[in-house]
Amino acid sequence: MAKSAASSVVRCLQLLTVAAVLAGAAAGGGLSTSFYSKKCPDVQSIVRAGVASAVAAEKRMGASILRMFFHDCFVNGCDASILLDDTATFTGEKNAGPNANSVRGYEVIDAIKARVEASCNATVSCADILALAARDAVNLLGGPSWTVYLGRRDARTASQSDANANLPGPGSSLATLVTMFGNKGLSARDMTALSGAHTVGQARCATFRNRIYNDGNINATFASLRQQTCPLAGGDAALAPIDVQTPEAFDNAYYKNLMARQGLFHSDQELFNGGSQDALVKKYSGNAAMFTADFAKAMVRMGAISPLTATQGEVRLDCRKVN
């Protein structure tokens, strides 16, 4: 029985990779699967080795890298603008409200970039490294893989105000989520699948305190559990796993949590609260292969949000600053 189940999982992953390629063909945004095949043929193995080392040291880092990619793409496209440090004359996105206390792992991307530069100087963009790293982070935590379309270039600027305006928050309503994802060309189904990224990672008390003390649509035992480490006042930086069941494994437990009214964020529980996404949450909770296939396809589409290509932007030598 176990061998049969394992074989089924392998077949599903093979099929979803094909599906992701087909989806990406329509959503590639001028990107290519063979962009570095001659210029930097080892880039994918270099990135994966760097991510594997970081995840082996701290599994939470896999979720952090995935979150960084999401927060990059939702602010003026997948252009590595989130990686730019502030300077005396420039205010970037790192200290925007949604990023300051929740996005981490910049040093992992720095280390990978250094290895890539040593192999093929001034060739691979930070934006492409981040896109590859997000895919590998998911896969190394037990999730699916997909074909990453490449050829992005790096932004020479960033926008703290756009980061504050364009990233959905933990208190967002379903209507707000649908609108904000729709503004990026992503469907409600994409939004529900991408939200499944919350099956891994941890969150600060400040982001879910209102949920566990004031929301009505929450399991009382779950609320009490989270209140033990997140007091009504103080302790903002205390961490809790977003997925109460398997916080370090990329699986479909997130959707099972929602059905049990155990979503950590108000925005999570909005996906299963008598609204338009209830039926899809039910399907994902009972069909892991459907979730991972949809997640992979949605990641391809998200990775194609407004990329800089051709002569736009630049290939940064240091991800933290423009050339």
TrEMBL record:
Record flagged with keyword Cell inner membrane: no
Residue positions binding heme b: 198
Cofactor(s) of this protein: Ca(2+); heme b
Details of cofactor binding: Binds 2 calcium ions per subunit. Binds 1 heme b (iron(II)-protoporphyrin IX) group per subunit.
Keywords, comma-separated and alphabetical: Calcium, Disulfide bond, Glycoprotein, Heme, Hydrogen peroxide, Iron, Metal-binding, Oxidoreductase, Peroxidase, Secreted, Signal
Site (described: Transition state stabilizer): 67
Main localization of the protein described in the UniProt heading: secreted
Record-listed E.C. numbers: 1.11.1.7
Binding site for Ca(2+) 1: 72, 75, 77, 79, 81, 93
Gene3D superfamilies linked to this entry: 1.10.520.10, Peroxidase, domain 2
The protein's enzyme class: oxidoreductase
Catalytic activity: 2 a phenolic donor + H2O2 = 2 a phenolic radical donor + 2 H2O
Binding site for Ca(2+) 2: 199, 243, 246, 251
Covalent S-S links between cysteines: 40-120, 73-78, 126-319, 205-230
Active site per database record: 71
Location in or out of the cell: Secreted
Cellular component per GO, a single term: plant-type cell wall
Domain Plant heme peroxidase family profile, chain residue ranges per copy: 30-323
Full protein name: Peroxidase
